[in-house]
Amino acid sequence: MKKVVLSQTKSLRIVAGETSFDHEQREKIFNTFFAISDYYKKHPNPGACHLISSIFHVLLKEQGIDNDLCIGEVKTGHQYFDHSWIEIGGKVFDIAIQLTLDEATNAPVYGGVDLSTAEVPERMYGTPSPVGFDTQAMQVFNSPFVTYMDGYPAFKEGAWKIVKVVGKELRLKLDIIELRQKYKETRRILKR
Q: What pTM was estimated for this model as a whole?
């Protein structure tokens, strides 16, 4: 049976608002998710899952929202790809899936729900492939978080600049020096 695509009649924000995801900070999570999604649409960057999930992780943490910065493989059909995403209470939040490295477009995943179908995604997160990570994913996994964030080449301040820009939209006052110190022990969680 073919899934019905809802995004043609409902905006992604409406579908996200109608999900059963429940959290005491639901409004902040929603606003942060769509602030990053809006930034990503204005500044498309195919395959930026490690970057987008890192930014999302920091912005959620800065608002007191516990979340897991995850890295693993995702299975779709018979194919696997290396990926990063966020989990809150065990539910997947995936903004970067909107534009993959091979430039495929997908609806984002919010609270474990594919926003184009309002159902559980067909993709299986944290499913190891027979071959494992490629070189880039291994490098991201093994890099200290601050080194990864500092190394984003588009800005002198690295990916912290994007954290500040999106944070400003959320009315957060962020200092890059303080953020670098605060997140120096941060590690990605390997999902299998």
A: 0.93
